[in-house]
Amino acid sequence: MEYRTFGRSGWKVSEIGFGGWQLGGTWGKVDDKNSIETLLYAFENGVNFVDTAFAYGNGHSEKVIGKALDQWSSGKIYVATKITPIMNKSKSLNLDNNPSIKDCYPSWYIREIIEGSLKRLGTERLDLIQLHLWFEDGITNLEWLNTLTILKKEGKIDKIGVSLADIRPEQGLELAKKGLVDSIQVLFNMFEQEPADLLFPESSKTGTAIITRVPLDSGALTGTWTDNTIMEWDKNDKRRLMYRDNRFKETLQRVEDLKKLCNPYYPTLAEAALRYSLYRKEVAVVIPGMRNKREVDLNLAISDGKKFDSELVEMLRPYRWKHEFYN
């Protein structure tokens, strides 16, 4: 396992972290016993960074991770979780309406969620707490940061971060320039290449750590999908909604194009995609989801210090595709 410095924190984190969304049950059925075994297996093989959130199964992912941590005693595991913003009456947030950060993250609510996360994870202090969505008026309206700073002084949290909306990396530019937080999490993969344009360089200037997620584009970039894959997902699997109508067919065609491009360089598209997610030096850790030991092995195999082919980076630029499938 290769390790990278987590921004200005000084932490040395495994470049492959453990994304915990699937542990909450949103992506189909999960078995908690298997999830705990998978987490422990990942820890045994060098993973020391786990990302979760209250929103992942209303805290279920946090509980599962907490149980795994309770069984682990061989070294430090950095755990990052998130504060879900308060939803409006329709239970959704339209970022185009420019909601106020003060309304979405009032002080009492921040404290309430953090206290709950501490209990579910079974710890006295959270290594990293992230706002699960960023609202740009947070640059000037700093009540959220003041509240988190107080909680930091109380010993409830260590570092503060922000997780950006999936296709809006530009929202984090001012945040990165000012260095207000310790880390910024953003979606970055062969399709969603935009963060590398401006966000990564600006974050580097202020020592803001970059966490990248969805390196395999919710499974599409594994290169294993077929025409029938969508019918194999459980009815409650989030991908059923994401890839509705013509989305699945379009994605599959784009994936086939990438396979042809990457085949001379890497044996599988999954390996190429994972290596791509780490090719920028600004990236501290990438957090693919892992359901079992086999997936842990596949993900960790690419952490070998080998650099992604620079020629292929340039060849991939025309394949960038800004898409939003979470609505």
From TrEMBL:
Q: Which domain of life is it from?
A: Bacteria
Which residues does UniProt assign to the signal peptide? none
- One Pfam annotation reads Aldo_ket_red
Residue ranges of the NADP-dependent oxidoreductase domain?
15-315
Name of the protein in its database record: Predicted oxidoreductase
